[in-house]
Design brief:
The complex is a heterodimer. Chain A is mainly alpha-helical. Chain A has 9 helices and no strands. Chain B is mostly helical. Classes of the chains: A mainly alpha, B mainly alpha.
């Protein structure tokens, strides 16, 4: 079947009936998001690849429990986040620093100096994210990047709302401290302008 | 401002405060430049984090959907927990129920037989009642285990309820006779005596024994697929880390008679290639060597996997991993021999007509130094 352009609910319904092509299209649509969640938590391509594949496998196996009509993205993101956190917790996990590979180089901006500063700020922030405890990193990723609510994060990671709040704040505080020298040039000014 | 209040700033940023707290924070912010600065910093962190690249190597996303599909097919999960199949635990519960009904019967049999005929009698009669029709009398027990074919299981269960009446009748007859000679109505006819004990045991355990599983593909595959599917549901929704292996699948069944019966009666997973390949794949994929020699060993392990499972859906992924781990070996160890090997392996892969992930391998080559080492 040609799944391109099909409604997601339709595709999920087909997938539940065993249509692998439909599920392939679902994977195609959500793979970047899932991989992004995984990569930000596990910090290595190989591990993120494993987590991404496993997340889709588990989603496939649990499709009959998924309520059609609800958004698939938060569901698969939660599965991926859980797997990623568990991966990081596992004793065999080794957190390799994320090396910029093909396609990972930040796109240059119009102003070379601003672009250089931004690239440097990104590098520093990236390194700071890598030093966060996995639990904080997961909460931060799900909130800051995936924009999940505290309730959704709490449910996804099996935490209390208070724990989500405190971990998120601690993560933000550490990251803000790391990139504060760059905020004046890149991000802080516009934020202050709004406040 | 205390840490607790700063944490509330973070929650305020996310719109997670109740109206009263939110109003209090807003009132505070109007008069506190420091907190406005903190709030701005926290917000800036989010903005910057969203801008962080989370890109995969070139070609990765082109091949991922097919690889996921390959793993689904390799795992044998042709259906995502098919709705018309009953979960494995229901069959275990059915087994427990049958066990509860049959056990007293099996306990009655020896006494009745001794009284009527020492060689044969009610046990075989019971077996005949359960399984007279099957063409292969040694294996009727495998039929109820097949989720796709629930009817025979139900028929067996109903037949089992008929048995006590016949046995009670036999006991009454025996009670009336002091030393009865085996009478014609009670004399079994069809099954050989050696068939009786396995039949009885088999009926009590509704899942096929390993030897039977091999010769009963529908029953064996269906049972295994159902168990892995239900386990995966639990894991996916509950977020467990371990991959759905048969042993963890058993451990995660609900406690109780049904789960216990399932653990006791569940056959070992059939050693089919997909299961072995999947497990071997996961073991290799979990390895994270720390030094060049480790990556070389992993590269060769992937090569062996690719050779062993050449036509398997995971075979293509393994061939790519040979190249990938070769690149890692070269990056970590900086040995030109590894670089040369990467080029050889990549060329060999790209020359294949079934190279499904050529873009991914080309991207790996593009990341290498130009020209021969």
């Amino acid at each position: 079947m040609t799944a391109e352009g099909r409604d997601e609910t339709f595709l999920l319904g087909r997938a539940r009936q065993g249509d692998l092509s439909a599920f392939e299209e679902i994977v195609r649509r959500h793979q970047r998001r899932v991989y992004g969640v995984a990569l930000r938590i596990v910090r290595s391509h190989h591990a993120a690849d494993d987590v991404t594949q496993e997340a889709f496998l588990r989603a496939w196996r649990a499709l009959d429990r998924f309520e059609l009509g609800r958004p698939f993205a938060p569901w698969i993101s939660r599965i991926a986040a859980n797997l990623a956190v568990n991966h990081v917790r596992s004793p065999e996990a080794r957190e390799d620093p994320l090396e910029p590979g093909p396609g990972e180089t930040p796109a240059p901006g119009g102003d070379p100096l601003a672009a250089a500063l931004e690239a440097e700020a990104q590098r520093v922030l990236d390194a700071a994210v890598a030093t966060l405890p996995a639990e904080q990193r997961a909460v931060f990723t799900l909130r800051a990047v995936e924009e999940m609510s505290y309730r959704e994060i709490a449910d996804a990671l099996g935490l209390s709302m208070g724990t989500v709040m405190s971990r998120l704040f601690r993560a933000r505080e550490r990251l803000a401290a790391a990139i504060s020298p760059y905020l004046g040039e890149a991000a802080r000014r516009p934020q202050r302008g709004r406040s | 401002m205390s840490g607790h209040e700063r944490a509330r700033l973070s929650a305020y940023l996310d719109g997670e405060l109740d109206p009263a707290d939110r109003a209090a924070i807003e009132a505070h912010l109007t008069g506190c430049a420091e907190c406005r600065g903190v709030l701005a910093e926290l917000a800036a962190v989010d903005v910057a984090a969203r801008a962080l690249p989370a890109e995969a190597p070139t070609g990765y996303f082109e091949s991922l959907p097919a690889r996921v599909r390959g793993r689904i097919e390799a795992a044998g999960a042709r259906w995502p927990a098919a709705r018309w199949r009953l979960p494995a635990w229901t069959w275990a519960a059915a087994a427990a129920l049958i066990l509860a009904v049959i056990t007293p019967i099996t306990l009655w049999h020896p006494r009745a037989r001794v009284a009527s005929s020492p060689a044969a009698g009610p046990p075989r009669e019971a077996v005949e009642t359960y399984a007279a029709p099957p063409p292969t009398p040694q294996r009727p027990a495998a039929v109820p285990a097949a989720p796709e074919a629930p009817a025979p299981g139900r028929a067996g269960g109903m037949a089992s309820r008929e048995t006590p009446a016949k046995e009670r009748k036999a006991e009454l007859e025996e009670a009336r006779r002091s030393i009865p000679v085996a009478s014609a109505p009670l004399e079994p006819v069809s099954p050989p005596e050696t068939a009786a004990p396995p039949e009885s045991v088999g009926v009590l355990a509704p899942t096929p024994r390993p030897a039977e599983a091999a010769s009963a593909p529908f029953a064996a595959e269906g049972a295994v697929a159902d168990r892995s599917a239900s386990t995966a549901e639990v894991q996916a929704l509950g977020g467990a880390a371990a991959p759905p292996r048969p042993d963890t699948a058993k451990a995660m069944r609900p406690a109780g008679v049904g789960a216990r019966a399932a653990r006791e009666s569940a056959p070992a997973p059939p050693s089919t290639e997909p299961t072995d390949a999947e497990q071997a794949y996961r073991a290799l994929a979990a390895e994270r060597p720390h030094e060049g020699e480790g990556w070389r060993r992993l590269r060769e392990a992937w090569r062996a996997f690719a050779r062993t499972h050449a036509s398997h859906p995971l075979g293509d992924e393994a061939r790519v991993r040979v190249v990938e781990t070769g690149v890692e070996a070269w990056r970590v160890g900086a040995d030109p021999a590894d670089l040369a090997r990467v080029r050889e392996d990549a060329a060999a892969y790209l020359s294949r007509r079934d190279a499904a992930q050529a873009a991914r391998v080309r991207a790996l080559l593009e990341g290498l130094p130009a020209g021969p080492p």
